[in-house]
Design a protein that fits this description.
520 residues; 5-stranded mixed beta sheet; 20 helices
């Protein structure tokens, strides 16, 4: 480990100890708040915790200088507003609700600001999952919190305000779920903010249960999670990753299994609604049934999207398994399965296999590099694809070798071979310049009805014919002719007159091909 790495590790350890110390001190203060039953002690604890949170956020903003500090300002404002509302709860109910609702508004606005640059285009699964989690929370809130609150005998204003808090909590939970799904492992500060918001939601749940009459929870216990939330958010502002809050970044959706687990919990809660809510009045039954239906529809949409995504991934994997990624042609393994895959098409038809090899490819690869060689392979594959028929099987057999499998007779195969050779008359325009490349083709004809090893036999025979055509500069050669040709060709090579005539013939063919291959 270098000196710089040791210093970095030491600073990280020291920073972690400071965070633990600050959280420990906050925990001790909160424990004193729970132990000492005194209104003055509650006010002092709230003041110390909130002041410490503001100091930590201010120090983090000064030390790390984030590019977008607005979310932290809003979180600070939310802490002051919600703490003021909690302090005034016993004094003035209207002011308490006003400050508390403003605290909800500011924290929600902060979440929207840091989530906006994290939108994942063309991917609505995250939004759908977050919405389902929030809808499940709202369904449970309506059954266990909102409905009992609406049935209370308080004033209309107080009842409406009290019923608003569970709805806001469900919305805040939706934002937290979406933020968790779009966060990364390196965002420690954001993880702490999530933890603080969850703690605040736990405190709100205790308050809502008390308001609904479902449970009786003391005021000090209700405030404890909220105080912990303030302290955690303050510590989050001290971490260097606090600068990433509200900045654009590439988001890779993850935590799919975790989101599915939350959705499963939401469905379990929803399944309990018919039992727990059996005494609900007709209006509440309509609301609960509507949310239950929306939740089920959302789950069905999510399942359908998951099936489509899985099918798309399966097709992509199958394509990658059967195709050469450089040229887009079939690969060797797919070629060997071509006859069995489309046996009906090949039955009762003649069959020819053309084995194509580029002449001088190794020299191009050695002279210009593999990148230019890959360009040449891709361009050669494109020219071959344009010459053959759409239903013909075209594959990259390996390196600079290509195979064309087509239901042709001998004469049609010869015509196709001439057209393929004509496709290589024009030089290739590559990044290294114009590079002339010719090809040699071996042809083997047979029938797919003979044996399962026909394709292997055709490849072997066409490969042998290709080497024969390359050795004697024939352009293309049939395997049947190549087996009997070596003696006559060698005799021609020893006869200067016939050799010259043969060379003249090849030059004439090359010239005529060049003049008639303008469409390639």
């Amino acid at each position: 480990m270098t000196v710089a790495e040791r210093q970095s590790a030491r600073r990280c350890l020291l920073r972690t100890r400071w965070y633990a110390l600050l959280l420990g001190v906050s925990g001790v203060i909160i424990a004193l708040h729970l132990t000492v039953d005194s209104a003055l002690m509650s006010y002092l604890t709230m003041t110390v915790i909130v002041a410490g949170t503001l100091a930590m956020i201010g120090f983090g903003l000064w030390a790390h200088r984030p590019a977008n500090p607005l979310p932290w300002y809003l979180l600070s404002c939310s802490a002051v507003l919600s703490a003021t509302g909690a302090t005034l709860r016993d004094a003035d109910n209207s002011l308490n609700d006003a400050f508390t609702l403003l605290g909800y508004l500011t924290v929600g606005l902060a979440a929207l600001i840091w989530l906006r640059p994290r939108q994942v285009r063309s991917n609505y699964d995250l939004l759908l999952d977050s919405g389902l989690i929030g809808l499940g929370a709202l369904l449970a809130s309506w059954t266990f919190l909102i409905s009992p609150i609406l049935q209370s005998h308080d004033t209309v204003l107080n009842t409406t305000v009290a019923a608003t808090y569970p709805v806001l909590d469900a919305m805040l939970l939706t934002l937290v779920a979406h933020s968790v799904a779009t966060s990364t492992r390196s965002e420690t500060s954001l993880d702490l903010v999530h933890l603080g918001l969850i703690a605040a939601l736990i405190g709100d749940l205790a308050d809502n249960l008390t308001a609904a009459g479902t449970a009786t929870i003391s005021r000090d216990i209700q405030l404890a999670p909220l105080l912990a939330a303030y302290a955690i958010v303050g510590v989050a502002a001290l971490h260097p990753t606090m600068t990433s809050l509200g900045t654009p970044r590439q988001i890779h959706p993850h935590h799919s299994r975790q989101r599915a687990s939350f959705i499963a919990v939401a469905l379990i809660v929803a399944s309990l609604v018919p039992v727990v809510g059996s005494s609900l009045d007709p209006l509440n039954r309509v609301v609960v049934s509507s949310m239950f239906a929306l939740l089920l529809i959302g789950v069905l949409v999510r399942s359908e999207r998951a099936i489509v995504r899985s099918s798309r991934s399966e097709r992509r994997a199958q394509y990658q398994a059967d195709h050469d990624m450089l040229t887009g042609l079939l690969n060797r393994s797919a070629l060997l399965r071509a006859l069995n895959r489309n046996s009906e098409r090949w039955a009762e038809q003649p069959l020819c296999l053309l084995f194509i090899d580029l002449d001088g490819f190794k020299m191009v690869n050695d002279s210009y590099g593999h990148a230019v060689g890959d360009e040449l392979i891709a361009n050669a594959a494109s020219r071959i694809r344009r010459v053959v028929l759409r239903d013909d099987v075209v594959a990259r057999y390996g390196g600079d070798e290509f195979v064309v499998l087509s239901p042709l007779d001998r004469q049609e195969a010869a015509t196709l071979a001439e057209r393929l050779l004509g496709a290589f008359v024009r030089p290739f325009e590559l990044s290294a310049g114009e590079i002339p490349i010719t090809a040699s083709i071996g042809i083997a004809c047979g029938s797919p009805r003979s044996t399962e090893s026909t394709i292997y036999d055709l490849i072997r025979d066409a490969d042998s014919a290709m080497y024969h055509a390359k050795e004697y500069s024939l352009g293309y050669a049939f395997h049947d002719d190549a087996r009997h040709a070596p003696d006559s060709v060698r005799h021609m090579a020893n006869d200067p007159a016939r050799h010259g005539a043969n060379e003249s013939g090849r030059r004439i063919w090359r010239t005529s091909t060049r003049s008639t291959s303008t469409a390639v």
